[in-house]
Structures are given as structure tokens and as C-alpha cells.
Design goal:
Largest sheet: 4 strands, mixed
Distance between the termini: 43 Å
Number of helices: 8
Shape: elongated
Strand content: 5-15%
Radius of gyration: 21 Å
Structural class: alpha+beta
Helix content: 55-70%
Length: 179
């Protein structure tokens, strides 16, 4: 995350907190971030210098003006005006980091070989909340190379119960014995 993204994302968070809109704006930011990810050509269009800035700003207003919180729409316009739309993802990360810190939420990333069911995710989330004493925002990743089991990262700690991890550990021990 760039210094600019931290600064802008933090400033939006401060404004949202002052106006008691942090939850709404965060939810909308994540939706817009996903739209930007799904439509990279749209983001490229908004950053195209050959298109007059007023037209690019109007595209933002037409796309989000009626649906998103006004502060968020204006924030995106500012990023567009300053050619900083590429930092929107970092701004979202800083906003989320500040929101989570203020609301006692820890983000956990669970990696498994196959997608977990909703019931499995709910059970894991409940267990992590009990262990950490915080609300958990759970992000799921699928990586076939883990073979089986789960790897959970939470607040800088890694809990690795994957088969791949066990195989790696056994291989290291064997290498030590053989040498």
C-alpha cells in the first residue's frame, strides 16, 4: 500500500467516522472495488488522459451518483481528478484496516485445497472468534497445492494444518538425518 493510499483512505475514514457512515461507506467501497476488478477497462477509461476530465467525472457520477454515498462518489472523483484511481484498492485497504481496528475486528485468511461450505466457514469463524476474543472477518482462498487441511492467517500469526506443510516438515527432518 502506498503512502498516498494510506493518506487518502485514512482521510475518507476520518470523514466517514465523523459523519457516522463508516459501515455504509466500507460496504459500498468493497462493492465498487469489486466492480473495478471485474471491469478493468472502465478504470482504464477513467484514467485516459485523452478524454476530457469533465467527461470522466461525469462517467463516475452516472455510474455511482444515484447508488453510492455522496462522500464516496466525491472521493472517487477526487482520485480521478488527481490521476490516483490506481490507488483505490490501497485506499480501501486502509479504510478497512481503520474500521477493523475501531470495531475490534480481526481479518483472517483461510486457505484450503477446495472451497469450504458455508457451514464450515461459519464453524471456523466461530472458533476463531472464541480463541481471539474479536469479531472475525473471514476471507477464503483456494489453493490445490495445500493438498488437504487448512492454513489460517490471523493478525500476523499462521496456523498451518495442511498436508503440504506436514510433508515439507517431514522432508526437512529426513534431510537433517541423511546429512
Amino acid at each position: 500500500m502506498t503512502k498516498t493510499a494510506r493518506l487518502y483512505g485514512g482521510s475518507l475514514y476520518d470523514l466517514a467516522a465523523e459523519e457516522q457512515l463508516t459501515g455504509i461507506i466500507m460496504e459500498q467501497m468493497m462493492e465498487i472495488r469489486q466492480l473495478f476488478r471485474d471491469n478493468p477497462d472502465y478504470v482504464k477509461l477513467l484514467g485516459e488522459p485523452s478524454i476530457p476530465q469533465a467527461e470522466r467525472i461525469d462517467l463516475i457520477e452516472k455510474a455511482f451518483g444515484a447508488q453510492a454515498e455522496r462522500y464516496l462518489v466525491n472521493f472517487i472523483k477526487v482520485l480521478c481528478e488527481r490521476s490516483l484511481l490506481g490507488d483505490f484498492g490501497g485506499c480501501c485497504e486502509e479504510f478497512t484496516r481503520r474500521y477493523n481496528a475501531d470495531n475490534g475486528i480481526a481479518e483472517a485468511v483461510v486457505t484450503s485445497a477446495v472451497a469450504l461450505t458455508k457451514e464450515q466457514l461459519d464453524a471456523l469463524k466461530a472458533k476463531l472468534e472464541k480463541v481471539s476474543g474479536k469479531k472475525i472477518s473471514l476471507v477464503q482462498k483456494v489453493d490445490a497445492s495445500v493438498l488437504a487441511g487448512l492454513c489460517v492467517e490471523i493478525e500476523g500469526k499462521q496456523l498451518d494444518g495442511t498436508v503440504q506443510s506436514r510433508i515439507t516438515g517431514i522432508s526437512k527432518k529426513l534431510a537433517e538425518v541423511i546429512v
